[in-house]
C-alpha cells in the first residue's frame, strides 16, 4: 500500500475513534474510497509560509546535519499546527464548524503530519468568542467574512486595506471625523446593515476609501471614510505597523469598541480589544468540502 493511502486511512481511523467533527487536509492526499464513518473531509489551501520555512531551515553551512534536520522537522510541525489552527478557526468563523475535534492532515515537502486539534481550545476561536461578548456573533462573523474577501480579492486587481471599528459607536464617532463625505449618511438602515449580504459589494467598494468604517454592535454602519483622532503614543503593537493599526489599537483602548484591521501590505487580519492585539491571522481561502 502506498504511503499516502496509509496516512489517509490512519487519519480517517483516528477521526472515527475520537469522534471528530471534520477532517481537514492540506496537500494532495486522496480520500476517495476511504471509510470516514460519515465524517466530512475538507481541503484547505496550502500554507503560504511553508516554502519560506523550508528555505530558512536548510542550507546553513557549519551546522550539525542531524540538528538541522530536527530543527526543520520541529519548525515544520509547529507551522503545520498553526496552519490547521487558522484554517479550523476560519471554518468556525464562517459558521461551518461549531466546535469539537478536528483531525488535520498537513502535507509539506517531504513530510506529513496528522494533527488532532480541539476547536474549543483554539486561541483564535476563544478570542472571537471574547469579542462576541460585546458584539452580536453574527455581526462579528459577517465582518470577518467581508474582511477575508477584501484581503483575498482586493478591488480591480489592487490590494486594499481597511478597518472596521465595531461597537460603542457613539464614543467612536466622538473621537473621529470624516476625511471625505460619509457615503452612508442619510441612508435607511436596510442599506447600512452588514448582516444583509446585498450590502457587501458596496462595503467592499467603500473599503477603498481612506479611513475606517464605524459599525454599531447590531451591525448598522454609521460611517465610512472616518479618521480616528486618537493618541497613538504608548500603543504597544507589532513594530513596523503604521497609522491604521496604531489608531485601531488606540480606539480599542479609549472605548469598548473592537477594531478589525486588514493590512494592505500583507493580507493579514488583526483584531484589537482593550488596546491588545487578540487575533493576528493570515487570510486564507475557505476550505472546500470534498465528502
Ligand atoms: N488615524 C487614522 N484613522 C483612520 N484611518 C487611518 C488613520 N491613520 C491611517 N489611516 C489609514 O490607513 C492607511 C494606511 O496608513 P499606514 O500605511 O500608515 O498604516 P498601516 O498600519 O501601515 O496599514 P497597512 O499595513 O494597511 O499599510 C491610510 O491611508 C489611511 O487610510
TrEMBL record:
Coiled-coil region: none
Main EC class the enzyme belongs to: transferase
Keywords: ATP-binding, Manganese, Nucleotide-binding, Nucleotidyltransferase, Transferase
InterPro entries hit by this protein: DAC_DacZ (IPR014499), DacZ_A (IPR048546), DisA (IPR050338), DNA_integrity_DisA_N_sf (IPR036888), DNA_integrity_scan_DisA_N (IPR003390)
Keyword Transport among UniProt keywords: no
Enzyme Commission identifier(s): 2.7.7.85
Recorded catalytic activity of this chain's protein: 2 ATP = 3',3'-c-di-AMP + 2 diphosphate
KW Metal-binding (keyword) present: no
Domain DAC as annotated: residue spans: 125-283
Cofactor list: Mn(2+)
Pfam families referenced in this protein's UniProt entry, alphabetically: DAC (PF02457), DacZ_A (PF21754)
Family named by the database record: Belongs to the adenylate cyclase family. DacZ subfamily.
Function summary: Diadenylate cyclase that catalyzes the condensation of 2 ATP molecules into cyclic di-AMP (c-di-AMP). c-di-AMP is a second messenger for intracellular signal transduction involved in the control of important regulatory processes such as osmoregulation.
HAMAP family the record matches: DacZ
Protein known as: Diadenylate cyclase
Organism: Methanosarcina baikalica
Amino acid at each position: 500500500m502506498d504511503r499516502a493511502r496509509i496516512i489517509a486511512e490512519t487519519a480517517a481511523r483516528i477521526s472515527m475513534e475520537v469522534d471528530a467533527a471534520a477532517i481537514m487536509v492540506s496537500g494532495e492526499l486522496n480520500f476517495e474510497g476511504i471509510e470516514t464513518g460519515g465524517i466530512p473531509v475538507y481541503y484547505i489551501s496550502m500554507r503560504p509560509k511553508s516554502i519560506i520555512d523550508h528555505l530558512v531551515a536548510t542550507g546553513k553551512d557549519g551546522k550539525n546535519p542531524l540538528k538541522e534536520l530536527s530543527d526543520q522537522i520541529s519548525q515544520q510541525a509547529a507551522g503545520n499546527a498553526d496552519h490547521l489552527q487558522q484554517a479550523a478557526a476560519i471554518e468556525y468563523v464562517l459558521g461551518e464548524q461549531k466546535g469539537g475535534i478536528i483531525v488535520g492532515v498537513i502535507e509539506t515537502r517531504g513530510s506529513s503530519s496528522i494533527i488532532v486539534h480541539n476547536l474549543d481550545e483554539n486561541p483564535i476561536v476563544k478570542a472571537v468568542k471574547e469579542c462576541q461578548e460585546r458584539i452580536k456573533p453574527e455581526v462579528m462573523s459577517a465582518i470577518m467574512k467581508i474582511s477575508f474577501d477584501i484581503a483575498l480579492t482586493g478591488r480591480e486587481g489592487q490590494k486594499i486595506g481597511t478597518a472596521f471599528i465595531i461597537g460603542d459607536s457613539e464614543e467612536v464617532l466622538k473621537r473621529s471625523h470624516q476625511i471625505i463625505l460619509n457615503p452612508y449618511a442619510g441612508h435607511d438602515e436596510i442599506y447600512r446593515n452588514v448582516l444583509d449580504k446585498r450590502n457587501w459589494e458596496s462595503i467592499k467598494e467603500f473599503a477603498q476609501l481612506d479611513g475606517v468604517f464605524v459599525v454599531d454592535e447590531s451591525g448598522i454602519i454609521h460611517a465610512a471614510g472616518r479618521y480616528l483622532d486618537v493618541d497613538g503614543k504608548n500603543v504597544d503593537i507589532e513594530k513596523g505597523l503604521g497609522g491604521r493599526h496604531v489608531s485601531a489599537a488606540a480606539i480599542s483602548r479609549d472605548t469598548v469598541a473592537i477594531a478589525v484591521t486588514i493590512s494592505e501590505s500583507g493580507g493579514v487580519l488583526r483584531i484589537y480589544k482593550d488596546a491588545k492585539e487578540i487575533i493576528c491571522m493570515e487570510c486564507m481561502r475557505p476550505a472546500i468540502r470534498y465528502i
